[in-house]
Amino acid sequence: MTKKKVSFEYEEITSIEACDENIQSLYNEAQKAKEKAYAPYSNFKVGAALLLENGEVFTGNNQENAAYPSGLCAERVAIFSAKSKYPDVAIKSLVIVTSAKNVQAPVSPCGSCRQVLLEYEFAQKKPFDIYLQTKGQGLIKVASANHLLPFSFNSDMLNG
Ligand code: THU
Hints:
The protein is α+β, with helices and mostly antiparallel strands. The chain has one domain: Cytidine Deaminase, domain 2 (3-Layer(aba) Sandwich). It contains five helices and six strands, in the order βαββαβαββαα.
């Protein structure tokens, strides 16, 4: 038996002010989107904003439902909205924020969102940056959705 280890790199950013203008603006858009989240069941509001290579910004927030599984996460609302309008334009960056007062860990996309982010990353054949809000003013930057989902299921497996 051989033990193997999977690791990935990420950057810790102490404050949004350390980011370039595009990311600061995405962060502000994500914050605004978060305020409009429909989260009456969890009270956990999430906002997402993404920048496409054509310069357009799309936002999303979580949409909950009395039938819980019918709701959708902020990231997927944003990404499906962008891709339904611009199926062939690549994503450059994505910012995810939450209203939770004292986020200890980064706001981390759920497994289904990781799967969806990775689908589009594979499709565009180019990684995109993901910024996750963390404690205080801080952010974590992950340079590819691939880092968030090792051993992912992907379309290659369907063609085996
Ligand atoms: N949620 C998101 O919108 N994105 C995430 O990355 C994690 C969780 C939402 C789903 C649900 O409305 C609420 O947060 C609590 O799970």
